[in-house]
């Protein structure tokens, strides 16, 4: 299924399990099905072919920032709403608002063959602003409690500049341990530029 958001200059396409994605009045809504996740354990286990999560992704051109306020209907540990970037089958990253495991937390996963996992800061309530940025080979993750002042979370690469140019970015919903949850994204915004400074709060 394809979906076009007026805020984005590129169409979105669904991947993985059915996320029942819908868009109305500036709000994108997705559903994380039971025991859905996208994670390759660093302890050595292979990715289960059935291990996947609902994704809605598109292909922006050039430098960009993708911003959204993410709200998660938390029910079980590790339920999450995610901004996601995909470069290849084992090269992708997640910027999450996750119930981790008993308090809402901004966390990140970068997968290069296997996944790492890092928590950033906790959040009061069930909403936070997330931002993915790209320039050249580099991606940056930021998060914000109010959509005004941004906290730098992570800077990383996922492949060559050619591979990165073809990256897919967008939205993911997961419920690894539970029976599912609803995730909404509002205040979606696209900026065709890299942030002027990663660490000054802008």
Automatic annotation (TrEMBL):
Coiled-coil annotation reads: none
What lineage does UniProt assign to this protein's organism? Answer: Bacteria, Bacillati, Actinomycetota, Actinomycetes, Kitasatosporales
SUPFAM superfamilies found in the cross-reference section: Concanavalin A-like lectins/glucanases
* Regions that span the bilayer: none
* Annotated source species: Streptomyces brasiliensis
* Pfam families (UniProt xref): DUF1349
Please give the name of this protein. Answer: Regulation of enolase 1
């Amino acid at each position: 299924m394809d979906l076009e958001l007026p805020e984005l200059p590129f169409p979105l396409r669904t991947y993985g399990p059915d996320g029942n994605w819908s868009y109305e009045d500036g709000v994108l809504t997705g559903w994380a099905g039971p025991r859905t996740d996208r994670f390759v354990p660093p302890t050595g286990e292979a990715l289960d072919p059935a291990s996947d999560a609902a994704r809605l992704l598109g292909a922006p051109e050039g430098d960009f920032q993708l911003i959204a306020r993410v709200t998660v209907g938390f029910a079980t540990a590790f339920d999450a709403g995610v901004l996601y970037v995909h470069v290849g089958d084992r090269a992708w990253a997640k910027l999450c608002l996750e119930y981790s495991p008993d308090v809402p937390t901004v966390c990140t996963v970068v997968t290069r063959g296997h996944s790492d996992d890092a928590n950033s800061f906790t959040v009061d309530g069930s909403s936070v602003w997330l931002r993915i940025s790209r320039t050249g080979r580099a991606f940056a993750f930021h998060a914000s409690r109010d959509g005004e002042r941004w906290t730098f979370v992570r800077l990383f690469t996922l492949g060559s500049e050619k591979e990165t140019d073809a990256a897919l970015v967008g939205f993911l919903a997961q419920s690894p341990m539970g029976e599912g949850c609803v995730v909404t994204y509002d205040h979606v915004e696209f900026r065709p530029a890299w942030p002027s400074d990663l660490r000054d709060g802008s």
